[in-house]
Amino acid sequence: MVATQDIAKVASERMLERDFSGKTVQELLGPRDISMDEVTRIIGAKIGKPDLSYVHFSREDYVQGLLQAGLSEDMADQLAELDTGINEQVLASGQPRTEETRTPTDFEEFAEFFAQVFKA
Fold first, then answer.
1. How far apart are the C-alpha atoms of 11 and 19, rounded to whole Å?
2. Mean pLDDT by 10-residue block, N- to C-terminus, for the chain (120 residues)?
3. How far is CA 92 from the centre of its chain?
4. Which residues pair with 102 in a beta bridge?
5. Exposure class string for 2-25: b at 16+ Cβ within 10 A, else e
6. For residues 34 and 1, is the Cβ–Cβ distance under 8 A?
7. Neighbours of 30 (CB within 10 A)
8. Candidates 3.90.1150.10, 2.10.109.10, 3.40.50.800, 3.90.25.10; correct CATH number of 4-119?
9. 3-state SS, residue 118
10. pTM assigned to the model
11. 73 with 67: CB under 8 angstroms?
């Protein structure tokens, strides 16, 4: 997981430096690998719900939840496909975590921001 502020920083630096030509891919990786169980535990602690637990939904239930939230059927299907690819490690980083690929914002920092918005 990578914070959008970290993506924006790298993207703006690359656009200003123009140190590339044609089409390039810059993989970005957070400071460490993190499981959904750990994500849920951290968020739960920050929002005052330490017993919050991660629940994995079937693809069908996931799509239905997205549809009920107002997403189009096409968007819900595409998000479910992305989620499946991540879970089955079809979509995985092709690069190791290095100084060039590692981003600075850890999940705890993001969770602190999330908690402030959640509690507002």
1. 11
2. 94 91 90 92 96 92 96 96 84 87 95 94
3. 13
4. 29
5. bbeebeeeeeeeeeeeeeeeeeee
6. yes
7. 19
8. 3.90.25.10
9. helix
10. 0.76
11. yes
